[in-house]
Structure formats: structure tokens, C-alpha cells
Design a protein that fits this description.
By secondary structure, the chain is mainly beta. 3% of the residues lie in helices and 33% in strands. The chain has 1 helix and 18 strands. Strands 3, 4, 5, 6, 8, 9, 13 and 16 form an 8-stranded mixed β-sheet that branches. It has a 6-stranded mixed β-sheet with strand order 1-2-18-15-12-7. The longest helix has 7 residues. It is globular and about 45 Å long. The two termini are 16 Å apart. The N terminus is likely disordered.
């Protein structure tokens, strides 16, 4: 069941997830010609090195690293499996790992649901090749067979996915978003699964499950209006 509530103190519109929420819409129009980048679970680099191009399944990277390489017009094809914001830590990063997230980018489209052999996007199947974005950065949640959190243990990412000042060319399509834990002070007290600020990304075929927050466990929108 989905509940909408308006919290005047924080001017946040919260989406409270009591049961898994699934968002569907027809695929958005293709982005401008760019590079297709490829991501696989535990792909290189995972040690802070800034190397690799992620430009084929054979040379696929972690999703976190692929996002750092992607520019407007690019697509990122993501193979089935579990991905965490800490799969790649930027060199010199010294903050709390809980603040890391998968940050949407203008002009960049992320597509889940690949087996890892496809040559065209139309061959993917998100309902079969489950692709999970997880905030379980300390690797101790209770999870199901696909890696989706059923019970949060320990300290997870405040927000699994974030969008700050992005428009509808920022696309997220074909993922399960799970294990977010926004249990700190503002702005880390809402939007465990996804927190949007001044943004209107295109969100398609997403499932929010097993997220937690003081408000808006699945998603919170601050001055935002995503296309669902």
C-alpha cells in the first residue's frame, strides 16, 4: 500500500512504503547517441583505482565506477545481481560510507535487467534478471535469494539512490531498490530508498522494498516531481 503525507516542517513530500512498490511505464525515448557502458557485480575497479572504460561486457565495471565515467548521452547496462554504493570508493574519500549513494546524472540512463550477454537493450528482462541496488553496505542484512533486504541489521546507506537538480533525461529503469536506512538528522532522515531534491528524473519499472526512514521509507521528494 502506498501512502502520501505532507510534512510542513521539512517541506518534503514522502512516499511511505508498507509493501513493495512497483513503478511501471513504457520505456522512455532513447537518449542522444553516446557510449554504452556496462556494469557487473564486483567488477573492477573495487580498490579505488581510477582506471577502466566499462565499454563492453568483457570489460565491465562496478556500477558506482561506471557512473563516474558516464557523460550526457551515455547508457549504463547493468547485469543481474546486487550492487552497493560502496562497491567503488573514490580516491581520497574520507566521509561516512553511509552518505554514498547511486547518484543520478543528467543525460545518463541506467538500465537493469540484463543477463550479461545482450547486444541490444530490447533483449533485457528486468522481471527475470533481477538487478538490485542495495544499501546493505555492512553486508549483514537479512535478505532473500535475490539479495533484497527483508530485515535491516546494523548501519546501511542513508539513501540508496539520490537525485539532486536532475531533469527527465536522468533515467533509472528496471531495478529493485532496497536496504536504505535514513535514520539520521535532516537531510538523512527521509528517503531511504531514494531521495530527490529539486529533481524530475524518469523512473520506470522500479520496485522499492525493505527500506526504512523517519519519513518516506521508499522515496522522498523535496521540491521534486519525478516521471513515474
Amino acid at each position: 500500500m502506498v501512502f502520501f503525507s505532507f510534512v510542513s516542517r521539512t517541506l518534503v513530500v514522502c512516499l511511505l512504503i508498507a509493501t513493495p512498490l512497483i513503478l511501471f511505464q513504457p520505456p522512455p525515448a532513447a537518449s542522444a547517441a553516446g557510449t554504452v557502458r556496462y556494469a557487473v557485480p564486483a567488477g573492477p575497479p573495487t580498490n579505488g583505482l581510477n582506471s577502466g572504460t566499462c565499454t563492453s561486457w568483457a570489460a565491465a565495471c562496478t556500477l558506482s565506477y561506471a557512473l563516474t565515467q558516464a557523460t550526457s548521452g551515455d547508457e549504463i547496462w547493468v547485469r543481474m545481481g546486487v550492487y552497493k554504493p560502496t562497491d567503488y570508493i573514490p580516491s581520497g574519500f574520507s566521509g561516512s560510507h553511509r552518505t554514498l549513494s547511486f547518484a543520478l546524472k543528467n543525460g545518463v540512463a541506467l538500465y537493469g535487467g540484463f543477463k550479461g550477454t545482450e547486444s541490444t537493450r530490447s533483449l533485457r528482462n528486468p522481471s527475470v534478471f533481477i538487478t538490485v541496488l542495495s544499501g546493505d553496505i555492512d553486508n549483514n542484512d537479512t535478505v532473500d535469494s535475490n539479495g533484497v533486504t527483508t530485515s535491516i541489521n546494523g548501519s546501511n546507506s542513508y539513501h540508496v539512490v539520490t537525485g539532486d537538480n536532475v531533469i527527465n533525461t536522468a533515467t533509472l529503469d528496471g531495478f529493485v531498490i532496497t536496504g536504505g536506512q535514513a535514520n539520521n538528522v535532516f537531510p538523512n532522515n527521509s528517503g531511504g530508498g531514494m531521495r530527490l531534491t529539486n529533481s524530475s528524473p524518469t523512473l520506470t519499472s522500479l520496485t522499492f522494498a525493505g527500506n526504512d526512514a523517519g519519513g518516506g521509507g521508499g522515496m522522498s521528494n523535496s521540491n521534486s516531481s519525478p516521471s513515474l
